[in-house]
Amino acid sequence: MEMNNLALIKKTLQATSLRQEVIASNITNVNTDEYKRNQVDFESLLHDAKRGVSLNKTQPNHFGVGNINDLKPSVTKVTDTIVKENGNNVDLDIEMVNLSQNALHYQALISQLNSQYSRMATVISK
Known about the structure:
Blueprint: H1 3-28, E1 38-41, H2 43-51, H3 65-70, E2 74-77, H4 92-125
Antiparallel strand pairs: 1-2
Helix pairs in contact: 1-4
């Protein structure tokens, strides 16, 4: 895997870590009056970057280095969902599912990153 892909994994790990913090905050505020849940968007940024013109591409399905370094996850407040009587729109069941899915995604990314570093160490040691 190229260094470019390592950068992509690291950026995705950062976004996944931020998502974990945001979900935890949503869960913490499940009973807070007027609280609106937040969410992290990173995947659509990746999709847009892949579709757009990028620098230093050697293959059509590769990202350019500039695009990866410029990707920043965004946190947005969700206001278009059903609200409870207290004005709060956090659904604890949904947040717990999101938390579990995100944790699994993070673990998979760590596994990929460790695998890539292991391969690099093998190549370097030969």
